């Protein structure tokens, strides 16, 4: 959607340290990410950094009717857009507060966390804090699925998760590596 491209570009130019791309994720990247989620068994799904909602829309289409879904978006303009587009979705603000939100919502653990966060541009302390929250929130056997534009995060994810698989799609701007991390 051209409007989403313009919103993303504007947000990237105004805050490149918080918005990691000039464009929303492609439908090809979205399809590859969604293939990794165990839709039949996932009872709770969290999305980190949904931006304009490309993955959000796919999650809502694929999740079980009884599955809980929470989106966490730090950028106020993206959050407002998400709340307008997806009024039934719980939208929270800060990934560093993931486990506080889960406690507030009386959710013990999460089956899948899908992330569009630009870890490569985050300071180490922020990246470490978010990944700690992610690992703590995941149920045993849970999945953390994220994409990045380099392999920079690979070693760190291997230290935190029992298994890390990597996929790739060239059909995205820019091309993206997909990390599938198993707790």
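^ Assign residues to that structure.
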């Amino acid at each position: 959607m051209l409007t989403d491209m313009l919103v993303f570009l504007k947000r990237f130019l105004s805050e490149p340290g918080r918005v990691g791309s000039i464009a929303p994720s492609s439908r090809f990247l979205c399809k590859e990410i969604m293939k990794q989620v165990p839709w039949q068994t996932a009872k709770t799904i969290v999305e980190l950094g949904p931006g304009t909602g490309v993955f959000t829309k796919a999650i809502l289409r694929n999740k079980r009717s009884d599955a809980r879904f929470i989106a966490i978006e730090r950028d106020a303009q993206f959050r407002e857009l998400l709340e307008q587009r997806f009024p039934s979705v719980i939208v929270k603000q800060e990934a560093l507060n993931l486990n506080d939100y889960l406690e507030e919502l009386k959710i013990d653990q999460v089956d899948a966390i899908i992330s569009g966060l630009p870890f490569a541009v985050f300071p180490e302390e922020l990246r470490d804090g978010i990944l700690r929250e992610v690992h703590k929130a995941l149920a045993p056997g849970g999945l953390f699925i994220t994409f990045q534009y380099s392999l920079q995060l690979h070693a760190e994810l291997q230290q935190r998760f029992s298994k890390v698989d990597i996929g790739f799609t060239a059909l995205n701007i820019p091309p993206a590596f997909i990390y599938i991390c198993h707790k």
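The CA atoms of residues 70 and 76 lie 16 Å apart.
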